[in-house]
From TrEMBL:
Species name: Oxalicibacterium faecigallinarum
Alphabetized InterPro entries for the sequence: DUF3619
UniProt protein name: DUF3619 family protein
Pfam families hit by this protein: DUF3619 (PF12279)
Transmembrane segments: 76-97
Keywords of the record: Membrane, Transmembrane, Transmembrane helix
């Protein structure tokens, strides 16, 4: 849309200049004409200059597949290059979460097994004095 505005402005400007050209002296018109020819020659030479374009290695192969009528070739590969790492990341995070949950369950089961196989009654573990005794005994 911006290019359209620029083109319209250029056309209006050119039209306004063309309307007033007959009022200019002859030597000024000749200088403007030669300057315009020089500018156009520079413009044409810059447009015709080759531009180096970096193409992926598979670019030629996909166009060959399209010419043979085998569909879109490897076009799906571009879409999958985003989805595959994203899926791997999600599965990795879910796997790590499941592993941590399993390890926590095993630790709690081991603590429960130790408490149940001990000779002390459960009420001893609830006593605040016993907790102080255990911490004092460890020092």
């Amino acid at each position: 849309m911006n290019t359209t505005k620029e083109l319209n402005t250029a056309y209006r400007l050119r039209h306004a200049l063309d309307e007033r050209t007959h009022e200019l002296p002859e030597n000024v018109r000749e200088r403007l004409s030669s300057a315009r020819k020089i500018a156009l020659s520079h413009k044409k030479s810059s447009v015709e200059a080759p531009v180096a374009v970096l193409q992926p290695a598979m670019a030629g192969r996909t166009s060959a597949f399209r010419q043979q009528g085998e569909g879109h070739g490897f076009a799906w590969l571009g879409r999958m290059s985003v989805l595959v790492p994203l899926a791997a990341l999600v599965f990795g995070i879910v796997g790590i979460y499941q592993y941590e949950q399993h390890q926590q369950m095993l630790e709690l089961a081991a603590i429960d097994a130790e408490v149940l196989t001990d000779d002390l009654p459960l009420s001893a573990y609830l006593d605040h004095g016993f907790d102080a005794f255990v911490t004092k005994g460890q020092d």
